[in-house]
Amino acid sequence: VTNQSVEAAPGVAGVRWYEVRRTNGTYAVHQQGTYAPGDGVHRWMGSAAMDRNGGIALGYSVVNGSTVFPGIRYTGRLAGDPLGQMTQGEGTIIDGTGRQTTTNSRWGDYTSLNVDPVDDCTFWYVNEYYTAAGQASSAAGWQTRIGSFKLPGCFAP
């Protein structure tokens, strides 16, 4: 699985994701979709991973420039769900409380979603976000957060 940031609607970023499979030695896109619920919130700088059951999760940065501050969210789909859709709704790892005020400072560039090798079910996600307190103490102001979640039906062996 992999993903990229795209313009999902005019002026709004979304996460385009892909599942690539190998059949008889040939690689091909099995399914793909763009996660952008249509609420005006930008979703980008994502990372994708797959659990032991074939469930796919996406983690990403969010912001809308007015009421949604730079934060961290995720979504997912189960293996048997309709192709090309993230069906599990959106979860929040942390809501941001600050905003980017410098032009050369960025957050979320090094996001990473990985499946725990112990149970092959737990997704661990690391990304950056902004807090008002961090912003008050630094021009950059971003913080790092690690969160975890599981998709429904995935249990350790």
Give your account of this protein's structure:
The protein has 157 residues and is mainly beta. Helices cover 4% and strands 53% of the residues. The chain is built from 1 helix and 10 strands; from the N terminus they run βββββββββαβ. The strands form 3 sheets. Strands 4-5-6-7 form a 4-stranded antiparallel beta sheet, with no helix packed on it. Strand 5 (56-63) and strand 6 (69-77) form a beta hairpin. The longest helix is centred in the C-terminal third of the chain and has 6 residues, at 132-137. The chain is globular and about 55 Å long. The two termini are 23 Å apart.
Key attributes of the depicted protein:
4% helix; 3-stranded antiparallel sheet; single chain; mainly beta; 1 helix; 4-stranded antiparallel sheet; 157 residues
Helix and strand topology:
Blueprint: E1 2-9, E2 12-23, E3 26-35, E4 42-50, E5 56-63, E6 69-77, E7 90-96, E8 112-115, E9 123-130, H1 132-137, E10 142-149
* Sheet of most strands: 4 strands, antiparallel
Strand content: over 45%
What are the segments in which pLDDT stays under 50 over at least 5 consecutive residues?
Answer: none
Task: Describe the strand arrangement of the main beta sheet, using strand numbers.
Answer: 4-5-6-7
Q: List SSEs in N-to-C order.
A: EEEEEEEEEHE
Query: Mean pLDDT, rounded to whole units?
Result: 93
Structural class: mainly beta
| Rg, Å, rounded | 16 Å
| Overall 3D shape | globular
